[in-house]
Amino acid sequence: MENTGIIVNKVAGSGLVSFDLADYYHSGERVLYDIKDNLFHGLMLREKDFRAFLKEHDWEQYKDKNVAVYCSADAIVPTWAYMLLATKIEPYAHLVVFGDMNALEDALFREAIAKIDLEKYKDQRIVVKGCGDIPVPVSAYVEITRKLRPIVKSLMYGEPCSTVPLYKNKD
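RE: above sequence
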């Protein structure tokens, strides 16, 4: 093989399409609302006190934020309490979910992935980027795999120069 001195980018000519889940990271602020602060003696929720709090609390502070609602105390919190909180936070927040910050991150990525126009990936050879500066939950990788697998020619994980094959359409 003759050395012409020309550098050829084999990855660019491979026909691989890189898909970076970090591009779908929602940059909005994340907030954890712990209902334990509403418990009487840290043990139980009293409906009258809770409803009074709901009327007085400044809900506008959650404007455009992503809110995870949960309870860190070992207490029984009725389902309706979380539902009431959601009715107060939802009009202001970008997203409100039940669970911890991991559940919030999962939901944000699930929401973003649901909005992707997948038609442009039809019959393509896709590499889902695996490393980056933005932490992407494993659930997002599973969700994008679930969405892409039925429509792509092949699906890989990693970088175009070093991939792990995941799926290849036999057709």
